[in-house]
Amino acid sequence: MKNCILSFILLWISNVSLFSQHAVTGYVNLDTSENWEQKVYLTKIKLYNDNKTYDSIPIGTSTINEKGFFTFGQELFDSKNYIYKLHINPIAVAKRKELSHTVKAFKLFILSKKDTIHFAKSDTEIFGTHASNNIANNELQKLKKFEARYENLTSDFDTKKYLLETRGYVKDSLQILLVKLIGIKKLDEQNLLEKDVKSNPDYYLNLLIELKSSDLDPATYLYLENKLAYITKNITDQKYKTSIWINIFAAIVICILVLILIRFKKKSKINKPVLLSKQEKAIKTLILSGKSNKEIANELFISVSTVKTHITNIYSKLNIANRKELMNKFEI
């Protein structure tokens, strides 16, 4: 009994040691093994700045044993999260195109040096389901399940519903920045990103700030940064053009109002009756009859200075400057 327990402990320790040194372990299902190479290939996906084109960089191979088991060591992986791909190749090059349409001979996943992932053996697929302790990879699988509902778009596809559901999922559920970028890229592929940025500019600008302050390679989010710059520039240009037209319209309205006000004032001055006092009317009549200031003072029994004061008031009320203009105004 003691020997059995000791053997079990040694076996468990050896398995822990084995898996602790390997980042990727698993099984492949090769029912028709004569069609396939007995190797699993590991490549690192390098995204370009446009986030649409990429290169697959080979980084390792693993020989498949008689049970279909394969492994890849931790030394092959980077300390940061990157997207990787496992795949196997048909033996005959001529069969590759034919098999690629009927068999899914690859798996994509996210991993770093400190994580592990294990592929269970499947009875129906070459690579079965997998379990990983990488949070980003697990969130990516959730996103893939979510997007699976929209793989075959039809004419009755509800873009608004997809926009709301996808944006909500990206914002609320995906806490890993790398996976957020994948979700945003999916929005762009559906031509929904620009609409969402315009509706929620603060969210995307804050996300860009978060990305820049993270340890992610700037190349992974340069695409989003350029996209936001393009969209926000268009929004700013549109607002600027709108502002110019509003200012032009306001200037025209102000000019029209000023002209109306000037015309109204002129019309008011023309039509407004001049109200002279009784004494001013008497002095105006005497001026029109050719009387001098002294003669007017003697006739009205007032001082010459009082006459001058009344004349000044008359000129002001009639908007004239001298006796000649007074004579002309009343056509004497």
TrEMBL record:
Transmembrane segments: 244-262
Residue span, HTH luxR-type domain: 269-332
Source species, domain of life: Bacteria
GO molecular function: DNA binding
Signal peptide: 1-22
GO BP, sorted A to Z: regulation of DNA-templated transcription
Family annotation (InterPro entries): Sig_transdc_resp-reg_C-effctor (IPR016032), Tscrpt_reg_LuxR_C (IPR000792), WH-like_DNA-bd_sf (IPR036388)
UniProt keywords, alphabetically: DNA-binding, Membrane, Signal, Transcription, Transcription regulation, Transmembrane, Transmembrane helix
Record carries keyword Transmembrane: yes
Tagged with keyword Cytoplasm: no
Record-linked PANTHER family: DNA-BINDING TRANSCRIPTIONAL ACTIVATOR DEVR_DOSR
Official protein name in the record: Response regulator transcription factor
Species of provenance: Aquimarina algicola
